[in-house]
Amino acid sequence: MAEQLRSFKKILTKKYIKTGTTPVFTGELEKLRGHWDAFVEYKSSELGLQKVQKAKDNASKKVYHHTLGQGGYKLAVPKWEKMEQDLLDRGIQPATMNWPERSRTWFYGHGEAWTH
Known about the structure:
The chain has 116 residues and is an all-alpha fold. Helix content is 61%, strand content 0%. The two termini are 36 Å apart.
């Protein structure tokens, strides 16, 4: 739900605040009418602009992007387990075999098994 709210606010900012327009408060936007002025004021304030800049700076520093796709760990973990089992069946012990589970899932989740 938090992801949806963040995306919704991002869409509102891009579509209305950056273009200097006000939405028509009907349908799903009807409940925004009483909060719109405060939202615009915050997004235009020094604090709001500082937070946007800080988030952009932090995002630009990100090095490790996940490669799980929409299925997430739910679909990925069985694939990784099968991959490890296939290697074991061929007599190859993966270097990750004795790693803690969290380390292995991070390693596989960031695509490292496929890049080396």
